[in-house]
Amino acid sequence: MRNNIWFIDLKSKNYLLSVGLLFISLSVFLMLLSCSDSNGGGEDVSKTKPSDLSVTTTVVGTDAQNPNGDGSGVVNFKLSATNATSYKIVLGNGETKEVTNGSFSYTYTASGTKTYVLYVSAYNAGQFVSKTLSITVFVGSKLMWSDEFNTDGAPDASKWTFQIWDPGHVNNELQSYTNRPENTIVQGGVLKIKAIREQYGKGDFTSGRLESNGKFDFTYGKVVIRAKIPTGVGTWPAVWMLGSNIGSVGWPACGEVDILESVGKELHVNHSSLHSPGRSGATPDTGTINVPTDNTEFHIYTADWTATYIKFYVDDKLYYTFANSDKFPFNKNFYLIVNLAMGGVWGGPVDPNFTSSTLEVDYIRVYN
Predict the structure, then answer these.
(1) Distance, CA of 153 to CA of 130 (rounded, Å)
(2) How wide is the angle at C-alpha 109 spanned by C-alphas 107 and 112, nearest 5°?
(3) What is the pLDDT of residues 41-90, one digit of tens each?
(4) Core-most of 21, 177, 245, 324, by most CB within 10 Å?
(5) How far apart are CA 335 and CA 22, in angstroms?
(6) d(CA 283, CA 196)
(7) Strand partners, 293
(8) How many other CB atoms sit within 10 Å of the CB of residue 54?
(9) Catalytic positions, please?
(10) What is the 3-state secondary structure (H, E, C) of 279-337?
């Protein structure tokens, strides 16, 4: 009787053990099956290579009249790709942008109409897909500095500094430069620099000279000047630029760019000249243009300055192009100068009948 009971107990335990093992095996099978179903055959979605990369670019302001945009330089991007977690776009101008959201805007700043080759990539866990495309964007010139001379009185001290010199300080000029309103004043929206024959200080003439040195300088851009020049043999008006490092390297190593420059002994001729080592004094790189009404009417004098050229215009007429390069000093900051000299090495003897005359400047604008 006891033996039979033991046999039955052993048999029950084996049965229970078998059932337990079967349950465990079935559970493992179902777990594996569930995992297989959830990732499409065991592939880890988080490491799937992106696919179907799509790139849409919209240049803001594009229409029939402005096929490359409105000049703002803004481009809207929309990037998408299956399984992508981030994007990188090489923008074709030396800059790269990395984003997790495929919709964003970017502003190009280089002036003019330019075509950029873009390289776009979509990423997921180190894997990526890429494509190349190009866009053409128009960026209009943007004003970065100006003086409209709209406030009567002394010139804006935040933009200009008076140079106060005795005669002969440079170029054997005859005038004393002063800061008096008799010589330099803003009236009726115009800067007026007046040269006067008068005994003052050490000279027989007075006049004015303004510089933006220490207050504004720049590298590359378009300088636009609206001005009317004085009359009289011996006058020497100019709106021009000097390299900001003149204090350390001197002239002509600093470079000089003359935009508006004339002398009264050569009626109605504007000179645009560039002075640099070996090409200075009486042997600059220079171009001229006749401006028949330069002392009776306002005209627009322009210098368009880049790393590869400096172009000079009067009333939008191109008359001289200088081939710039890194062998010249015209690739760094320059500041502005406005002055009216008398006599000197180029102005020459002054007409005995000269009493006074005025350089008038309506505005000076500098664009990027």
Answers:
(1) 61
(2) 120
(3) 455 556 799 999 999 999 999 998 889 998 889 999 999 999 999 999 99
(4) 177
(5) 91
(6) 30
(7) none
(8) 13
(9) 256, 261
(10) ECCCCCEEEEEECCCCCCCCEEEEEEECCCEEEEEECCEEEEEEECCCCCCCCCCEEEE
